[in-house]
Write a structure and sequence with these properties.
By secondary structure, the chain is an alpha/beta fold. It folds into two domains: 237 residues, Phosphoenolpyruvate-binding domains (TIM Barrel); 31 residues. The chain has twelve helices and ten strands. The strands form two sheets. Strands 3-4-5-6-7-8-9-10 form an eight-stranded parallel beta barrel, surrounded by four helices. Strands 1-2 form a two-stranded antiparallel sheet. Helix 9 links the parallel strand 8 and strand 9. Helix 6 crosses helix 7 and helix 7 runs parallel beside helix 8. The protein is elongated, with a radius of gyration of 26 Å.
């Protein structure tokens, strides 16, 4: 029996069109139906603002696709692709970028290999925190690559810690020049994190890259926020640039309290002889126990 993902990727052309899906083949050689391709996202630059999130669980990925999120990012480890592959299968029709950790590769050749592993697993592109040299190598290999500018948390020691970047003219020019260097290296998009909103709006007009804003206002082409922030998976304090649309943390705390109380009531029932009751057990047929005792004790 075919999986849901297999069925969705084998829809007749008319059904795919009616669902707004585009027939494509991934760089990994897999036929697929996607809501967007790179070209569609590039053509939408400056015309509309798309939505993006990063799910961490299969349920989050399923919900994001069902809700209609435009693009997804997922964490990806080339040495252990299983987790990203599960999320890919959970949201088979949504454009998905696999994010490769900064320290997972050490050379341009390793970057290309990691990119190919991601594409084989079903990625529509990769995202990185690498410099132009590695980006150029990956792009030259035909792998769609998204760069990262502004506040890059893992590199934040160079910009003064976890703080906004681009609030001085020197920093603003540095962010712009960094983005232009990624453009020249062959990136197709750039995630811009925690820079002044007005700055990103102006930069986005001056680069061909599709800009994904996280904490950088509404001037980008894509608005990005982690699923855990959208859903309120954690207790406060919350990052300033996030908004919680649900409070799953509070719900999970209540569910956890229910778990504890359920176990306590179970323990109490067992200790006081209330469980198991007659309704929870199988009653021996009449005469069976007498026959059993006679056979065991007199055998």
């Amino acid at each position: 029996m075919k999986s849901d993902a297999s069925r969705s990727n084998s829809l007749p052309p008319r059904d795919a069109h009616e669902r707004g899906l585009h027939r494509t083949m991934t760089l990994g050689g897999q036929y697929a139906l996607r809501n967007h391709t790179i070209k569609h996202l590039q053509d939408l630059k400056g015309k509309t603002v798309l939505t993006e999130t990063m799910p961490f669980t299969v349920r989050e990925a399923v919900a994001a696709e069902e809700a209609g999120i435009d693009t997804l990012k997922v964490k990806f480890d080339p040495a252990n692709p299983a987790s990203a592959l599960e999320l890919r299968q959970a949201a088979p029709n949504t454009f998905m970028t696999f994010c490769i950790g900064l320290t997972k590769i050490a050379t341009a050749a390793e970057a290309v290999r990691a990119g190919y592993v991601a594409m084989e697993a079903g990625a529509d592109g990769i995202m990185c925190q690498w410099g132009p040299e590695f980006i150029r190598a990956v792009s030259d290999a035909g792998i769609p690559v998204e760069a990262h500018a502004g506040l890059v948390p893992r590199l934040s020691t160079w910009t003064g810690g976890l703080r906004a970047v681009g609030k001085t003219i020197d920093e603003a020019l540095w962010v712009f020049q960094q983005i232009k260097s990624f453009e020249e290296a062959g990136a197709w998009a750039v995630e811009v994190e925690v820079v002044p909103a007005e700055l990103l709006a102006q930069i986005s007009r001056r680069t061909r890259l599709v800009t994904s804003s996280i904490g950088a206002g509404s001037g980008g082409d894509i608005q990005f926020m982690f699923a855990e922030d959208i859903l309120g998976n954690h207790a406060p304090p919350f990052p300033r640039h996030t908004k919680q649309y649900r409070n799953l943390y509070k719900m999970e705390q209540a569910i956890q309290a229910e778990r504890v109380e359920g176990f306590r009531e179970y323990i109490d029932d067992v200790k006081n002889g209330r469980f198991p009751g007659p309704e929870h057990t199988v009653k021996a047929p009449q005469g069976l126990i007498d026959q059993f005792l006679a056979a065991v004790d007199n055998g």
